[in-house]
Amino acid sequence: MAADLVAALLAPDRGGAPLPRDQALGLLRRHLGLLQARVQESFEARQLSGLAAARWLAALMDGLVQAIHAYTAAMVPPRGAAEAEEAPFALVATGGYGRGVLAPYSDIDLLFLTPGPAGEDRPIGPRGRRAVEFMLYLLWDLGLKVGHATRTVAECIEDARADATVQTALLDARFLAGERAVFDRFAEDFARARAEWGLGQFLAAKRAERLERHKRYGDSPFLVEPHIKEGRGGLRDLQTLYWIARYAFGVQKMPELVGPDSPGGGILTEQEAKAIRRAWSFLWTVRFHLHYVTGRAEERLTFDLQPVVGARMGYTRHGLQDGVERFMKHFFLTARDTVRLTRLLEPAIERAALGPPAVLPAPDKTLSRAGFALADGKLIAAPGRDFGREPVLMLRLVRMARDRGLEIHPLALRALIRNARCAVALRGDEEASAIFLDLLTGRDGARWLRALNEAGFLSRYLPDWARIVGLMQFDTYHVFTVDEHTIEAIGVLGQLDRGDLVEVAPVASELIGQLQSRRALYMAVLLHDIAKGRGGDHSELGARIAQEICPALGMTPEETETVSWLVLHHLLISQTAFKRDIEDPKTILDIADLIQSPERLRLLLVLTVADMRAVGPKVWNNWKATLLRELYWRVAEVLAGGLSVPERDLRVTQAKQAAAAMLADWPEEEVRRFLALGYPGYWLSFDPETHARHAHLIREAAAADAPLTVRTRVLEARSVTEVTVYAADHPGLFSRIAGALAVAGASIVDARIHTLTNGMALDTFWVQDAAGGAFDAPHRLARLSVLIEQALSGRLRVAEEIRKVRREPARLRAVTVPPRVVIDNHASNTHTVIEVNGRDRPGLLHDVTAAISAQGLQIASAHITTYGVRAVDVFYVKDVFGLKVENERKLAALREALLEALTPPEAEAAAPRQAVAGAA
């Protein structure tokens, strides 16, 4: 095919005269389109894996580039004798293209390599420069992205000496066209230079580069939107292994390292070589799909692309798992394999090239008796001790490294990975259980658990753990896979233990030192999500699994029961704090009745903090921390026999007395008038300072005869801004204010709605900006007040303005959130509680509250929570007579109206709606 293209370009039927450039460009475009289409068609028909397609595409591109080179030689003849004597150049492929693999939208890296006469280098001549320019412009006009350099052989060696990136690119250099002798000379000189420089400098440079790359693209192989090329466990990590092996031994393919006669003496087993091939092929297949789906060099597997790529690769629903979840689990297991292979192969290459380490006897008898020695100052199994014969040595190794502050030698990690399957023999072993619990609850527990997880040890030791490794929850709330989230949560417990989180979680930091059931807490965190992915309630299933695992690990019956209870109720504190009105006495009494024990309350709070902070960096904020603290102290007082929930009338009287004390300088008649304005619910919702501020606001509004008053107050400690609106009450007031706040770009996190005895509404909203911080920019606060006034006066068309608000990124639209409505008449003695679940969007609260108002209901309080793109909003409501809504016909109409409000107009093809009603 390439020969035919060359012949067509040189047009022998025209007497050997090449085609004019414009005609040649048209011919080349057609040829490029044809070869790209052939590869795509074969790949998408599943006739080729991604790796095979990458190799074929590179080979076809070789033919195109070689034809362009031949055409250039004909189109750029020498001008005079001097140019005729110019040294020819070699056209060389470098980088990924040099390795002979090419993704659909990747760059083509070319090196124009020139020699010099009598062994001396000289730069490229005038004709050579014209030829290079002619080729590059032709390639650019074809729409190809070309990375290029023009160097002499000596310049290549010198640049490579100073820059490991250049070394790496030249390591993959492959001759394409031109003067072969020039390339051969470069290859010889570069090989000699590499031998002179040694592997050590290259290895150090690649490790530093990898460390920096992981920091930038993700230091965990279990991020739910992974970068498949640069992230940890991605293609670049596999390529780094290949580069190190190629630098050390000159191999072209990794299987060349298998067998006793291979370079390095057989540092790779056949099974490990197959694992590398599988990972390499799988990642290349994912990469090809990403490029073809997006039409660009996309390397990040975002939420919107995951179901598309998974479906294209044939992943369908199987049992309880969706196709996209199965696909992503395969991806994460492949990433883990890549991490594991790196730890297996890299130290072996290093030692085979640089020589075995000097293993020194243990410096003390304790270390020696445990079966260990030191090599390069790092911990390693003593000569004659083998993990396969003594599996418990693997756990001893990790504990010894922790206790002595030693690093584990790479060769010891290699042995740990290769023998991880032997952990099965340790199930039920008393010494292994004791060491494991010590590692879990001891210093830097997350670090050592992560090492055991990545080595594959945990999956063998705890079979239930294997089911959550690489398990992804297809939502935008969780940042990590289930196993990595769990290890992160263990890490948060360690931070609380060390006092590192006193500023952000003061109560949990104090409580963790008071716990009597510390081991149970750590085990509960380890198991809190162990049953995810199995269908059903993962809390209930996890509680049963805990009853099996804990005794097997040597925990007492009391500890087992505590762990099981904590796993069962690990969501209780957060769901109550964020979804229920903690000012409602019944809320506090119900949760206190369920928890019963102050110790369990402390355990639950600490577990909740660890769980939430481990979800991701944007989940925890001061507002949520405040709600958790307030709930904790209220329940703690009840459990301690205090009067945090005394009789309602007594609490109202106490609140009024406190407010009156704050207004001691007011005339007695004005104080009495203010105290008569609020219904009991109002007095129980705020502290005395807030009551006093409300009194001044109402007084000023009356003096100015103002129909509307808006006040804002930034609460830095809670990361929220408090917005208070005082206006004449009317149906839909909450909805209009919510709409105005949405237009202003404010996100409502909580709300209290009160109608006073004078017919005025005193509504309080707590809002944040898009980043989860206080809404505090002065110009934005001013605009917010104006928008509320315009919305209430009818001058702002709320619905139209909301539609103009910026929509969510396309990558998030693939995550579906079925609308759901739950109505509960048992959660409160005085209100009907409505919980709505739906996809978050600008103006959602406006639409939902408008639907509630349209049903003739009054909203007493609202509790707003978002989990990624999922909104969970809870409203305490009454009917126009101040009673619960218990009529089934009214409840059915309410459910239908809310489901309609939850579904945006453009989402006609959304998932089926689901309604759930509590006993009314």
TrEMBL record:
Residues 1-366 are annotated as: Uridylyltransferase. Its EC number is 2.7.7.59, 3.1.4.-. Its cofactor is Mg(2+). Residues 482-598 form the HD domain. The keyword Iron does not apply. Uridylyltransferase (UTase) activity is inhibited by glutamine, while glutamine activates uridylyl-removing (UR) activity. Has four distinct domains: an N-terminal nucleotidyltransferase (NT) domain responsible for UTase activity, a central HD domain that encodes UR activity, and two C-terminal ACT domains that seem to have a role in glutamine sensing. Modifies, by uridylylation and deuridylylation, the PII regulatory proteins (GlnB and homologs), in response to the nitrogen status of the cell that GlnD senses through the glutamine level. Under low glutamine levels, catalyzes the conversion of the PII proteins and UTP to PII-UMP and PPi, while under higher glutamine levels, GlnD hydrolyzes PII-UMP to PII and UMP (deuridylylation). Thus, controls uridylylation state and activity of the PII proteins, and plays an important role in the regulation of nitrogen metabolism. Belongs to the GlnD family. NCBIfam families: PRK05092.1 (NF003467), UTase_glnD (TIGR01693). This is Bifunctional uridylyltransferase/uridylyl-removing enzyme. It comes from Caldovatus sediminis.
